[in-house]
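Pipeline run #58 for the internal structure catalog. This entry was flagged by the ingest filter as a single-chain record with no existing model, so it goes straight to prediction. Upstream metadata was stripped on purpose; only the residue string is passed forward. Reviewer on rotation: M.T. Logging verbosity set to normal.
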Amino acid sequence: MNMNKSIREIVEQFYTYKEKKNIEIESRLGFFNIGKFDSNITEFFFNKIKKKFDNTDTWDNVEEISKTDYYYNKIRISVEDDGTTECIEKKRFKNMDYQIDDSPLDFRISFSQENNVPNKDYLNKDNLYSRVKNRTRYEHNNVYFDLTEVTTENNSVVETRYEIEIELKENDKSCLYNSINLVLKTLDLINICEKISKKPNIIHI
């Protein structure tokens, strides 16, 4: 599948979900592990992209964010270092997974809805799952680039994951423009890790 066909598919989903309130549209880097998409891109690629970003002076804003996310059923309870708490219910509308030939990384396009919900003392619930996030957010024009180190602990085993997302801010651009912009920005990041073809073969999984 060529890139133009992939973009047409993404444009169709933009038209489907663009009128939804609190819509979140993002691309996430990753790779396929035994047929499943894994968003842990490894520390090596993460640091390579972060070094490039930190040596770039075109950002509108750079923000450091530290918080812990707790999960109870479909509710995410985010607690920032200053104690600020936010409860979010996330509804996933569509995941679109793409594999790139001869590339170290692949990507996922997601369309979701995030709504604030009342805090019903969720932090006192049993069996909460938590993720400690240390994120650097780079902002440019209508795009957020989120580089996040995620630490989890399960049965005393600590794991650190390295995740990168590109999120489109709400804007008045066309669905076609946003689709092309999101895919090209994603390919730009992969190119920082390792050069890929100028006309990559992108396969919808």
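catalog note: The chain has a mean pLDDT of 93.
catalog note: The radius of gyration is 17 Å.
status: ready for reviewer M.T.
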